[in-house]
# Entry
Amino acid sequence: MAKKQKKNKRNKETTNPVALITLMDQSSPISEQYRTIRTNIRFASSSDHEIKTVVITSSGPGEGKSTTSANLSVVFANSGQRVLLIDADLRKPTVHKTFNLINNAGFSNLLSTKEKLVNLVQETTVPNLHVLTSGPKAPNPSELLGSSRMEQVLQELREEYDFVIFDMPPIVAVTDAQIMSSKVDGTLMVIREDVSRKESLYKARDLLGMVNANVLGAVYHGAKNATDQGYYYYGS
Ligand SMILES: Nc1ncnc2c1ncn2[C@@H]1O[C@H](COP(=O)(O)OP(=O)(O)OP(=O)(O)O)[C@@H](O)[C@H]1O
Ligand SMILES: [Mg+2]
# Structure
C-alpha cells in the first residue's frame, strides 16, 4: 500500500540572496579579511600545483558557503583576474539571487547538454566577474558532477578563467562537494560559530580525506570574540 507522502518543508524554495559586503563597503574590516583569504590562497599556489579551481563547502547547512563564495569571487575579480563563480549547489541555488541574474539556464545545462560555456555564463556589475548560475533543477546532481562531461568542463574552465569558485552544498548531507573536491585544485571549508557542529566537522574531514582532497584551510566566521575587528580568518 502506498504511503501517504509527507510534505517536506525543507524542500521549499526558500533561498535568499547573501550580503555582498565586499561590494557595499570595500574598506570594511570584513572586506579586508576576504582579501587576506585571497592572499593566502595565492600563497598556497605553486608552479607545480596551481590553484585555479576551488570548491567552497561546509559540513552542514547555513554555515556561510554562499556568502564566502560570492565575496571571495568579488575580491579575486577586484585584483584584475578573470573570475567565474559557479553555483554548483544544484539543490539549493542562491547565486542568481545574490547577483540579480536570471536562472533560466546555467551549470545544469552545461553538464547535461551540448550547450557552450560562453552561451551560459553571465556578466555581473563587477568587472572581471562572470557567474554561471545553477540552471534548472536536475534530478541527478551527483551523477552530473561525477560525469566525464564534468572533466571536460573543468579543462575548459581552466583555459578560459584565471580563477573559478564552486559554491557547493554541505558535504555531510550529500556527496556533491566530496565529488568535486576530488577534481579541483583546492577545497575551502567554511565554519560558522554556533552553527557548525563538531561531529559534522569530523565527518567532513573524513569525507575529504577519503578522496584525497587538497584542503586549503578553513574560513571561520561569526565569531563573537574576534580581536581584530573582522570576524573571518583563514588557516591551514
Ligand atoms: N557571519 C555571519 N553572520 C551573520 N549572518 C551570516 C553570516 N554568514 C552568513 N550569514 C547569513 O546566514 C544565512 C546563510 O548563509 P549562506 O547562504 O551564505 O550559507 P550557506 O552555507 O550557503 O547555506 P546553504 O547550506 O543553505 O547553502 C544567510 O542569510 C547569510 O546572510
Ligand atoms: Mg549556499
The chain has one domain: 51-235. The chain has ten helices and eight strands. The longest strand covers residues 186-192.
